[in-house]
Amino acid sequence: MQPPFKVAFDARRSEQQSAKGNLWKRSHPERARALQSKYRNRAVQLIDEQRTPINIYCDNVLVTSDFHIPFHDPVLVDILCQAGEENSVDTLMVSGDFWDCDNYSKFTRKTWTFTFKEEIHLVREVMNYLLDYFKIIYFCRGNHEHRWIAVNTGMVGMDELFATTCIPTDRYKVTLDDHMYLYQGDEKWLLCHPKSFRQTNLSVVRDLAAKHQCNVIGGHGHQWAQGYDKSGTFVVADGGGLFQKEALDYLRETTCHPMVRSGFYLLQDNDLITYSGI
Q1: If 174 and its partner were Cys, which of 11, 35, 158, 181 is the partner (CB 3.0–4.6 Å)?
Q2: What are the tens digits of pLDDT across the range 13-22?
Q3: Are residues 14 and 128 in the same domain?
Q4: 204 and 163: one domain?
Q5: End-to-end CA distance of the chain
Q6: How many domains does the chain have?
Q7: Contact, 126 vs 76, CB < 8 A?
């Protein structure tokens, strides 16, 4: 243990150095502001270049998440495409976990299914099928895509993951963010794949609506429910997903996890139209 006078000395020295820095800022205000702006803005620019946030202005879109390919439900995918065709929707927004990346899971697997090469093939197959019905598809990152990014120590991201499908990038857009924003008229929608998970339906999206002051549709929880935030101002929804329940190995365990439900949404002029899964 250091003697008390050493701690006191260090505290005084820190205070003196801080005072000198503040004195320099007061003496050179324009120079301080210029330097602060230069380096802060460059840091923000570098992050923005990698995050590539997605903001969409569209009054007629389909919103879904959690395909977990190769554990997706082909029947639900077909229902999604038919809903797009019947409602003249050419824009699809997928809020994370389009991929499963099961081979990159940090959890011990009790069963083995597809190789990552096979998963790439199936992702390409599903994307090509979706692109027969939709003009453009937007994807944000889910925790399962993050598996692949984490194994590659962050040196590659969503762009490189989707590039393995060899599908032209003018047909889809991706972001490293775990969310996208949709604007319909004066209303703002946060479409996200939050890291947080709770067993109570709508609990996470209600808190997000209060934080961001907008409507929220959240993926990740594999629950499917709709309602309002605590103030009754904003629409909130749990996104369900297009997964096949029987194919998800963790659902075979005996737990108190709530029953999962699949489904997706049509958003037309801020009207949330539900499509329940099986």
Answers
A1: 158
A2: 555 555 655 6
A3: no
A4: yes
A5: 64
A6: 2
A7: no
In the numeric block, which tokens belong to residue 24? 């320099």
Long-range contacts of 224-230 (CB under 8 A, 24+ apart): 224/261, 224/262, 224/263, 224/276, 224/277, 225/201, 225/261, 226/202, 226/272, 226/274, 227/202, 229/205, 230/206
In terms of residue numbers, what domain contains 219? 55-276
CATH number at residue 224: 3.60.21.10
- Strands 91-95 and 215-218 come out as unpaired
Q: Are 242 and 277 contacting, i.e. CB atoms less than 8 angstroms apart?
A: yes
DSSP 107-161: SPPSS----HHHHHHHHHHHHHHHHTT-SEEEEE--HHHHHHHHHTTTSS-HHHH
As given in the structure block, the two tokens for residue 15 are: 């205070």
Question: What is the C-alpha to C-alpha distance for residues 225 and 25, in angstroms, rounded to an integer?
Answer: 53
Tell me, yes or no, whether 263 and 194 share the same domain.
Answer: yes
Same domain, 61 and 43: no
CB distance 234 to 214 below 8 Å: yes
Location of structure tokens 């409507």 = 215
pLDDT digits (tens, 9 = 90+) for 122-156: 999 999 999 999 999 999 999 999 999 999 988 89
